[in-house]
Amino acid sequence: MLSMRHTPPIIQFNKILSSLAKANHFPTAISLFHQLQTNGITPDLFTLTILMNCCCNMGRMTLAFSVFSKILRMDFQPNTVTLNTLLKGLCLSFNIHKALRFHDTLLAHGFQFNQVTYATLINGLCKTGHTALAIQVLRKIPQYGIVPNDFMYSGIIDSLCKDTLVSHAFHFYSEMLSKGISPDVITYNTLIYGLCLVGQLKEAIDVLNHMMFKNITPNVHTYSTLIDGLCKDRNIKDAKSVLAIITKDGVKPNVVTYNTLIDGYYLVNQVDKAKCTFNKMAQRGVAPNVRSYNIMINGLCKSKLVDKALNLFEEMCRKNLVPDTVTYNTLIDGLCKSRRIYCALELLEKMQDRGQPANIFTYNSLMDALLKNQQLEKALMLFSQMKERDINPDIYTYNILIDGLCKSGRLIDARDIFQDLPVRGYRLDVRTYTIMINGLCKEGLLEEALALLSKMEDNGCLPNAVTFEIIIRALFEKDENDMAEKVLREMVSRGLLSG
């Protein structure tokens, strides 16, 4: 087109750029736009809006705003599509407050918005956890002459359900109905999800029946959500019944449906049924994904069937499914708990060679296993490696390390780390204090242990039954019977031991 004697009109180029943008080939569209400019072809508003959309979808908001400036410089009147594109880009980039300010500025300058604008803003606010602000926007829009729609209400209902504010979600559902706005399958799916999340399974089934009464056909997501809720409630029998119903109704279960059911079987320790369902899904034309294998591997590891888990790991690799960090972490943890530490360390190397980054959970599992196997030096090397790779230790990491140092007779080192943690901004938990108290008791430093017991309470961390038991046992061993009985009475008065 560029090499033709009579250059086609800009509308023809726009068709190509638009097709590329719709197919998510954003860099190609931008590159071709630059070729247009190099050839002296003047873009129109539609061309620049396509370019801006590409920039927004790539998260390049500075460039998107420079295109917007170009629109204004060329005396084009930005339309609602142009403005919505920018607002959506800001929401996608999680610049939600900037999106609101941009909206207010444009509104003050007399620009007009439509339902899409406010649906975009409400969706962006809900997705970033600003549900209260989303509700404020919903309440304001009638004064701009905009009628709220099902998409706006569904976004707010979804956000409230995810925050377990299910009764509030139902308030907005009722409001929808009173305004004559018909909920769709997405709204009902969200309500069912919210009810399942708070364990109200009977009410979730009532909503399913209600939507069917309203001639709204449940989809595979509806049923998968319900199966997930039933499985988490350990009601596998009813979950299986739901699966049978959907198959009978001609709704094809998807990989999420099967993953949920497999996870449920492992939850009630029905390993054989989990394996049977895993095999069935492939037979029924539903290919297991990485999550399917992760659920299976996790379940097998927890059932101490680590070799079977390793076989599945090899199988997924043969099927060209790329194991993720969760896969490796699950196997490493399973190997560590089975005392196969060298296999776990080999898997760590394999994981890093294949470009899967190890994280805090990987190192915590390995360090815990090494220290339980009295391999302190190797654990300390791993701790150093972890910090070299910019993986910040968490309080659980330090609990493992302090416990290992105490048990290896290096109380001074353990105490130094323990005392340094609050200085470095770590909040000590009951386990940290209990580990340190146990270390002090083992070395016969009872006075220091009792002082630490008192200090932990002053710092707002209440001792648990294990903390008291360690102190009481140490006191009895030192024939400090009166003091032991006093601490025991304290333990009973706190309800940590039945009197």
TrEMBL record:
Sorted UniProt keywords: Repeat
A Pfam family this chain is assigned to: PPR
Top-level taxon of origin: Eukaryota
Annotated InterPro entries: PPR-containing_protein, PPR_rpt, TPR-like_helical_dom_sf
PPR repeats mapped onto the chain: 9-43, 44-78, 79-113, 114-148, 149-183, 184-218, 219-253, 254-288, 289-323, 324-358, 359-393, 394-428, 429-463, 464-498
Family as reported in the entry's similarity comment: Belongs to the PPR family. P subfamily.
NCBIfam families found in the cross-reference section: PPR
PANTHER family named in the record: MEMBRANE-ASSOCIATED SALT-INDUCIBLE PROTEIN-LIKE, OS03G0201400 PROTEIN
Protein name, per record: Pentatricopeptide repeat-containing protein
Organism: Stylosanthes scabra
